[in-house]
Specification:
Transcriptional regulator, 10 helices, transcription regulation, Repressor_TetR_C, Homeodomain-like_sf, mainly alpha, 204 residues
Length: 204
């Protein structure tokens, strides 16, 4: 019996299958990937560096949807805002991957390159070096939290007659549809105003 024209296993297929499992269940295992691809578990390990290696492939795959051109925009605040929006959209497409990726150190070269570009952008804008990573991490907290919020039910508060909450009921009725998007805009506006104030104080 001849070899199949298309190999059963390669890094792309492994990554695609792992992401499908994460989208479905929030996690993956190497044996699960092997079963879906009709291969032996040991064969998967010939293509990746264990579970940690697959996690980094997932990170690269999800982050590949972030538009790299956003960090080339001018001025710097337009670049940061565009990057945040693209970042949120990329992770909103795979919200169940967020907890998995947040608990693993970033090692993927392409992702590290994007962080390097973000840091360089802020340095060039005049931000103090010591404040750059706290700023980026704060933005990520906003972006990833909002991406998770997009996956939540539109109605997150179920009011009952047992506990009177008339003000909460009125506030929920007033917000209308698009709760997560409106909350993200509030957070991003506050973040950008803070970042601009920091940049002005630093003399940038």
């Amino acid at each position: 019996m001849g070899r199949p024209r298309t190999p059963l296993l390669d890094r792309e297929r492994i990554t695609t299958t792992a992401l499908q499992l994460v989208d479905e269940t929030g996690d993956f295992s190497v044996p699960q990937i092997a079963r879906r691809l009709g291969a032996q578990t040991g064969s998967v390990y010939h293509h990746v560096e264990g579970r940690d290696g697959i996690v980094e492939l997932l990170r690269e795959r999800v982050c590949a949807a972030i538009d790299p051109g956003t960090l080339e925009l001018t001025p710097w605040d337009a670049a940061v805002e565009a990057w945040a929006r693209s970042y949120r959209a990329a992770f909103a497409a795979h919200p169940r991957a967020i907890p998995l990726l947040m608990t693993s150190p970033v090692r993927a070269p392409r992702v590290l390159e994007q962080y390097e570009r973000a840091v360089s952008l802020l340095l060039d804008a005049g931000f103090e070096r010591a404040g750059i990573m706290p700023l980026i991490i704060a933005l990520e907290n906003l972006v990833l939290g909002s991406a998770l919020d997009l996956a939540a039910p539109e109605t997150m508060w179920e009011l009952t007659d047992r506990i009177p909450t008339p003000h909460l009921a009125d506030a929920l009725a007033a917000v209308g549809e698009g709760r997560a998007d409106r909350a993200f805009e509030v957070g991003l506006t506050a973040f950008m105003n803070h970042a601009r104030a920091l940049q002005a104080r630093s003399g940038g």
